[in-house]
Amino acid sequence: MRFLYWIIAIPLAVLIAVFSVSNRAAVTLSLWPLPYEIDLPLFLPIMVALLVGLGIGFAFEWLIQGKHRRAARRMDSELKRIKTEDGTPKADQKALGHS
């Protein structure tokens, strides 16, 4: 799995670096309701927008998956409770090689 991560991460980092170097032209970012204008390289507002979108997506998925994490914690605590309650080995544990 770690190998797959590096196969994807290295080319993606190279693409981001090439994109940043090739889009260095200055643009004026106007914050509409406010009277402020900021001169930035073109890649910066694009990267910030991508990171904000990524953060919103991660937060949304984390919230959606909360019920599954909660169920897993509940099952884990129930399993621990059952294991501590009954210290005698079961027949299926002996079959699996546990003593």
Class inferred from helices and paired strands: alpha+beta
Mean pLDDT over all positions: 88
- Our measurement of the CA-to-CA distance between the termini, rounded to an integer number of angstroms, reads 33 Å
Q: How many discrete domains?
A: 1
- In what range is the share of β-strand residues? 5-15%
What is the H/E order? HEEHHH
**Helix run count:** 4
Give the overall shape. elongated
Overall radius of gyration: 26 Å
Uncertain segments are none
Percent of residues in helical segments?
A: 55-70%
How would a crystallographer describe the biggest sheet?
A: 2 strands, antiparallel
Placed side by side, the strands forming the largest sheet appear as 1-2
Q: Total strand count, please?
A: 2
List keywords for this structure.
4 helices, two-stranded antiparallel sheet, alpha+beta, elongated, 99 residues
Which secondary structure elements does this structure contain, and how are they paired or packed?
Elements: H1 2-22, E1 26-31, E2 36-41, H2 43-64, H3 66-85, H4 91-95
Antiparallel strand pairs: 1-2
3D structure, described in words:
With 99 residues, the protein is α+β, with helices and mostly antiparallel strands. The protein has one domain. It has helices spanning 2-22, 43-64, 66-85, 91-95; strands at residues 26-31, 36-41. It is elongated and about 70 Å long. The model has no long low-confidence stretch (mean pLDDT 88).
